[in-house]
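Possible regression after last week's pipeline update?

I re-ran a chain I had predicted before the update to compare outputs. Posting the input and the new output here so someone can diff against the archived version. Not blocking, just want to make sure nothing changed silently.
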Amino acid sequence: MRVVTRPDFDGVVCAVLLMDALQVGPPVLWVQPSDMQHRRVNIQNGDVVANLPFHEKCSLWFDHHYSNQPETPVDGVFKIAPSAAGIIYEHYRERLDRDYTELIRQTDRIDSADLTLDEILHPESHPYVLLSMTITHHEPSEEHYWDHLVDLLRTRSMARVMDDPEVKRRCRRVVETNMVYEKALRANTSLIDHVSITDFRNLDPAPDGNRFLVYSLFPDCTVNVKIVFDDEDLASIKVGHSILNRGCEVNVGKMLSAFEGGGHPGAGACRFAREKAPDYLKRIVGILQKNVPV
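New output (post-update):
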């Protein structure tokens, strides 16, 4: 049995809960949603998949993304919810060795972008938010850190997690990176009507940082579109409703399911061949400008 999940904060917490409840040992198999969608992952009988699109070979599946709703009953739980970890916690609460109530409450808030302006502007004052921001780069070289976080959150209090030398080093880097990221956002973001477009295609590597910061920098936008060039001749687009100016009516996950991606009503992503970028970007922005529910 393996835990298979994605490398974000919700995915890390999913791994914490599943390894505790099902007594699954490491390592976790870390997978990108697009790789699961395109069947580039060798899923095996016995695998427990969480926070990812469904795969017919897995034994259990837990997810909460609007675009991943199953057409037939599956073993596990699917429910539209703030986080996949919250679904797992509710399902296995009686089997868990520790009280994860606060961790789940914070994971729900972070994954559903239910944050305050102070948490956006000053994450260094909010441990859970800051910790979630240390999971940024998705290269395989980062797997040791994701595994390390799973182990820490399974065995330590939040205060001790934040006191871990590797976590402290990465938290300092997050604060420094966010300062650079703010400059990159200001220089590479344009506003068309109520849609802010962050175009990092000409930057290599593309900067990364506080995903909520753009909403405070461009308060007139109700939705942000960010496009970057990835490795292997791929591009990706991420779309998110503003959490400070809530006026976008487009179901992002449903919209992006037509562009090789998916997600939640308020946020999602798609990954595709670079040559499709101009067409996909134009069509996505056009849909968001019209702001008609889809």
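Follow-up from reviewer: compared with the archived run. The longest helix spans residues 165-188. Marking as no regression found.
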